[in-house]
Design goal:
Helices cover 40% and strands 19% of the residues. It has a 5-stranded antiparallel sheet, with no helix packed on it. The protein is globular and about 70 Å long. Strand 2 and strand 3 form a beta hairpin.
Length: 273
């Protein structure tokens, strides 16, 4: 893990405009508990993509952890701005509640968590955590907060599933080995730079057919079903890194409708200079 992260960090010094790479580096640093470095990486992604709620909330979380878990200050401002752009964002509602609780504004905290509670009916573990947070805030208030909420609608099962057949151009077979990594992914045409769904395979598996769907989402709000059009791509990486490098082999098709039921035929046929 340390070597992979160090390799990604070095690659980004050569490709500073790679927003997806900075986002992935930030996530990697977070998983390693290197919060200040994670915040710096997410800041680079934010500078590149602008006010994209998913990136803003990850950046805010990293900043908060870097300052000992305190949300006050820049993290809280980022969270509130993200919620203005995407009021139903579950991560934003969760973090905003924590921010208001930290400031002693318990009613505001409960308001956000009640809204979140209504969206967690199909996730028992998260639902229990939210209810514990609400109970904690109401205990500090000494009373129950009355919140007018509409009845929660059960989440509809997503029917989005993109079936992708991936093959390697015969002219490039001598450029790869059976152990090389193959990334197959879908990314929004307009929106966050990170994949909405991805599968990792090896060249030995080609040709193959995979299905990209909402179960592969990196975050709840980054699902295929949230976007009308996506880019579907495949890349062979000798280094096995999530960031594209010179010499990698790629293939992609743009403007794929996520409600399409037709199988997508994708050929890896180009070499990155």
């Amino acid at each position: 893990m340390e070597q992979l992260v160090a390799g990604l960090a070095a690659k980004l010094q050569e490709e500073p405009e790679n927003a997806e790479g900075w986002f992935m580096l930030g996530r990697s640093y977070m998983s390693m508990g290197r919060y200040s470095e994670a915040a710096n990486a997410f800041k680079r992604a934010h500078d590149l993509v602008g006010d994209e709620p998913t990136v803003m909330l990850r950046y805010a979380d990293a900043l908060a952890m870097a300052q000992g878990g305190r949300i006050a200050g820049e993290p809280f401002e980022l969270i509130k701005r993200a919620l203005q752009l995407k009021p139903e964002d579950t991560t934003g509602l969760w973090l905003a509640g924590l921010g208001y609780e930290e400031q002693g504004q318990y009613e505001q905290a409960v308001q956000h968590w009640r809204k979140l509670e209504a969206m967690m009916q199909n996730d028992p573990a998260s639902l229990n955590e939210v209810r514990n947070l609400i109970a904690r805030a109401e205990q500090k208030l000494g009373s129950t907060v009355k919140v007018e909420t509409a009845p929660a609608k059960p989440a509809a099962a997503s029917s989005v599933a993109l079936k992708v057949n991936v093959s390697l151009d015969a002219a490039l077979k001598d450029k790869v080995s059976a152990e090389d990594t193959v990334f197959i992914f879908a990314r929004a045409m307009e929106g966050p730079p990170m994949p909405l769904a991805a599968v990792r395979k090896q060249v030995r598996d080609l040709p193959l057919t995979v299905t990209l769907d909402d179960s592969m989402a990196m975050m709840p709000q980054m699902k295929l079903s949230n976007y009308a059009k996506v880019l579907v791509g495949a890349r062979i990486s000798k280094a096995g890194t999530v960031t594209a490098q010179s010499g990698d082999l790629t293939g992609e098709i743009k403007n794929i409708a996520t409600n399409s039921n037709e199988q997508i035929t994708l050929t890896i046929s180009q070499r990155i200079p």
